[in-house]
Amino acid sequence: MDRFRLDEKVALITGAGSGLGRQFAQTLSEAGATVVLAARRREKLEETAETIRGAGGSAICLDLDVTDSASIAKCFEEMHEQVGVADILVNNAGIARQAFLTEITEEDWDAVLDTNLKGVFLVAQAAARAMIGARKSGSIINISSVLGVRVSKALASYIAAKAGVVHLTQAMALEWSRDNIRVNALAPGYFVTEINQAEFDQGAGTMVKKLVPMGRVGDLPEIGGPLLLLASDAGSYMTGSLLAVDGGHLCGSL
User: Are 93 and 15 in contact (CB under 8 A)?
Assistant: First the structure.
């Protein structure tokens, strides 16, 4: 079980203020990592950090806009000054804009692709450059989605970006393996968060029971084990993989 431990490791989590990002940060902290929480909403980050510190963990908060190269450079500079080069990156920041293809605006399309795909590239590139420069092995975990493999109506921009993350992950894994940097993608299915709780309590819960063979949405702690597998030495021979955590969604019927 020691292979799942992350003591003396530094983990950067983008979009760590709420939902899956907060759960990722808490999971990595519980395994012993010093966590760096990064996002645009500083107040949400501080809430996550307070929870982690209250449980005995170590956390710092940094401002980050994953679509802005200057913001990324500043975030990494501050992280290196405070805790050093990250051993683990969880590329979680993401947004969605729901609209049919005939109605989505160019502005909304660009916002989703810039955050969910370009942002993943820019932050991973910065992390890999730092790891290589420090001669440090590492693990990069890009957060895709079951909708990076399957499709749904009115979410084309999100689907296109998350599908791009899957192939981008494989390209990163291919190029950075020689530098001892593993790159994998995690594909969550439907999980209950504070943002979608009300939706799942109403009509969406019935829809999920039809789509997901296990007949329910996931509880946030259920994604912790797969995350630790990819982040830790327990997954040392995994790179370029897509790991679905979805209650069987991807093997269910259309």
Answer: yes
| Domains present along the chain, CATH in parentheses | 2-244 (3.40.50.720)
Q: Which residues contact 141 (CB under 8 A, 6 or more apart)?
A: 88, 89, 90, 91, 183, 184, 185, 186, 227, 230, 231
94: three-class secondary structure by DSSP: coil
The DSSP line for 111-122 is HHHIIIIIHHHH
Reported as a single tens digit per residue, the pLDDT across 11-42 is: 999 999 999 999 999 999 999 999 999 999 89
Q: What is the dihedral of CA 108, 112, 118, 123, to 10 degrees?
A: 130
User: Which positions are annotated as active-site residues?
Assistant: 158
**Residue with token string 């759960």:** 23
Strand order in the sheet with 242-245: 59-63, 34-39, 10-14, 88-91, 138-143, 181-188, 242-245
